[in-house]
Structures are given as structure tokens and as C-alpha cells.
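Bug #77: duplicate submission created two jobs. Keeping one. Sequence:
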Amino acid sequence: MMIRNLVREMILQEKTLLDVVPKRVRPPDLEGDYEEGGGLQYGNKSTTEFRRGIKKDWNKYADMSFFQDPKKLQVIHYLGLYSARNSLTDYFPEGKVVPGRVPGIHIPNRNELSCFGYTPPGDPESYEVYTIGPYFTFKKYRVTLVASEDAATERLSNATPDDIERMKGSGLAKRPYTLSRSSTFPIDAEELEVYNTLEEVVIDNWMVDTCYGPKEEAEYAAELGLKYKVLW
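Kept job's structure:
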């Protein structure tokens, strides 16, 4: 036990995956296209395994006592930041949700979600200055990956019916781009002394605490049973 703790302490003195993981051997059929299976789309089996391996290493070496603590890291999701689908109906479609059983509001949503991370945490109402659209804060979630820059994880909107069927048990996954640099995945708080904003924090099993946004969305939020704060 003492040796294990000593090894752990040595690991936590490092900053990123670059410091603890050897360079990966890329399979010959690895998809590297950013817009295809190596990036924003779901890829072939070996590509998926490669991407999953990066994420698995981060989970192995990251200081979870820091990244899972909302008192140390503020997690914010901006609705439709890249897709422009920033209405609550894009996230919780009318007529397709069961009142009182909405994933992400009443029960955990297992589809992974990309967020921004801020440290130290701030006043949630101050974050509207970073975006023209609404955003979520969370009362429940689990961090599964952290990157200091956009990790180009799969976009859930790109999932095919086969992807959805294959991952229906665990929810749709989000994994980093195949050509991601290991130095962009911090594993402890030390790296965040340089980058106090994390461009991608992936979470699963999430439940929204509050949605901050425009007045016209407040009525539908009330129908959903979602706590809502009007900011404009």
C-alpha cells in the first residue's frame, strides 16, 4: 500500500498525459480526418479503440479528487455552441419526453456532454458574458475527460441509428480526436495554474441544476420541471 501511494504521489506531480504515457503506436487503418471517424464522427473499430485508449489513460492518471469536485472546478455547458441548436426543444424535444422522467432533468442522462471548465469556480450568473446563448449548470455529473483545448470529441448529432443502438446501454460516448496531443490533457491542478479555462470537459450521468437564458424559454422550462433563470 505504501509503494502504491508513493507511485500515485509521483504521478500527481506531473501535469499532463504527455508526462506519464508513452507515445502511442497508431494502427495502419486509423482514421485521422477531423470531420470523419478520427474526429467529430464515430469511426471504425480500431479508430474507436485508439480514441477510447486515450480517454482510459486520462481516467487512470487524473487526480479525480480535483476534477470531480465542483468546489474546485466549475462545469458549464453552452447550448448549441457549435451546432447553433440552442433551444431547450433541441435538448428536450416537445412530445418526446415523459413528464417527471426527463433524462438530464429528473434522472441522469447517460449520453456524454461537452462542457467548458473554469477554475476557480465563479458566480454562475456571470458566465453569460462568454456566449450569446443559454447555458446549463449541473447538480450531478461525472467527469470522464478534460482537455485544455477543444478535444474534437464525437458530436452526438452525427451518431447514426447503428451508433445509437450499439451504445444504448451506456449512452453515446465522446472521445478525443485521434491526432490529439497528450500535452493537452491535464491530469492535476498544477496545469490549471497556467490554463484556468478548460475548453472541453466531458461529463456523463448528468442532471441539470439550472438553465440560464432568454425569457422566451422560461415557459417551456417550467413545463419540463427545469429550474430556469432569466438573464435577458
